[in-house]
């Protein structure tokens, strides 16, 4: 009688038990285990205490969601057995390139070394070839998912329908606003035809609902005011630490969140350690000046806050969103120092929060499989749906100039605020 297979299960709060038996050598690598000490939402747990889930938890959730998808696709003939294993393994490791605080410091790594976490992941896996081969996969074929040469990577990474997208959206919502978007019906009707992802036409309403929920999460969680301020503060002090102490790229990527905090707290720079203490105590700078598109400017006005809201045109916001002087940590540092001079405030008292990348709010169209064998696009049916999503994004576009509460009245003075507005707009000309 054959010996029963020793099944390895990991419990997940959303999925229940996840079978990881065939991927143990990949899970047991230090690089994957490090994801267990990197928060999925960066610094958002300062606002949502339950949002302490990690990149490791999300990666396991993405694996499970991909296992369910590949079982279905195998039955339908979209993929073969080798494809399913490669896809599942990629889902497990898709975030292996992340550094500390997830996306928060990627503007720093992008400026200094020209790399984001996806590009870093493609480098890291070269050191882990044995672990890949230990689960009976051909390394060259596996790497094609990281380099995006194999179009099946879309099953995991597609902006609308990818399994990792569906997992993080569900998981982030569960831990922050206490609800989930209900994506199972849509996932059941997602196909892979002619090297692209598409949905069955019967799932059109579910696809629209998912895109609406994505915008809701940006409004209520990802781009929440204090979350954006905390993220920019962490970005600023990590940039200063790396430049001051000449920390190497590999060392930065390998840092777990607690290691980065330790380095910040024990920095040779008192300014860095003091700002880190402020971060940990949630003594964050306050929004004092906000530049918003004119037709949305009144949405943020509060008579009980020392904050000046100034309208700008949509074109001016577009220019600021793509402006080099506001796109890099080193450039933001210069602008903050100049604003401190304009407002006559002390050094390291001002924080500039640039507008979020407009690409985040430009919805990617969804391909639809029509029952007669043809294809269509979601926008063919619902043009106003896409226009509405874009308009929502514009309503949340904002440039913030922040300072600590003791300087807020001074910075938000209308005359000073107008001078700072003119200074920022002059940078984009």
Report on this structure.
This protein is of the alpha+beta class and 429 residues long. The protein folds into two domains: 9-223, Hypothetical protein af1432, CATH 1.10.3210; 285-355 and 397-429, no CATH class. It has 22 helices and ten strands. The strands form three sheets. A four-stranded mixed β-sheet has the order 3-4-8-9. The chain has a four-stranded mixed β-sheet with strand order 6-5-10-7, with helices on both faces. A two-stranded antiparallel ribbon has the order 1-2. α3 packs across α10, α12 (204-222) runs parallel beside α20 and α18 packs antiparallel against α22 (414-427). The chain is globular, with a radius of gyration of 23 Å. The model has no long low-confidence stretch (mean pLDDT 93).
Q: Report the helical percentage.
A: 40-55%
> What's the overall average pLDDT, rounded?
93
Shape: globular
Which range does the strand content fall in? 5-15%
Strand order of the largest sheet: 3-4-8-9
Distance between the termini: 78 Å
Low-confidence stretches: none
Question: What is the structure about, briefly put?
Answer:
The chain is an alpha+beta fold. The protein has helices at 24-27, 30-33, 55-76, 81-93, 106-113, 117-124, 129-134, 139-146, 154-157, 163-176, 184-188, 204-222, 225-245, 249-254, 257-265, 270-280, 314-321, 329-343, 378-381, 383-395, 408-411, 414-427, and strands at 9-12, 16-19, 190-193, 196-200, 286-293, 308-312, 350-353, 367-369, 375-377, 398-403.
Describe the secondary-structure layout:
Elements: E1 9-12, E2 16-19, H1 24-27, H2 30-33, H3 55-76, H4 81-93, H5 106-113, H6 117-124, H7 129-134, H8 139-146, H9 154-157, H10 163-176, H11 184-188, E3 190-193, E4 196-200, H12 204-222, H13 225-245, H14 249-254, H15 257-265, H16 270-280, E5 286-293, E6 308-312, H17 314-321, H18 329-343, E7 350-353, E8 367-369, E9 375-377, H19 378-381, H20 383-395, E10 398-403, H21 408-411, H22 414-427
Parallel strand pairs: 4-8, 5-6
Antiparallel strand pairs: 1-2, 3-4, 5-10, 7-10, 8-9
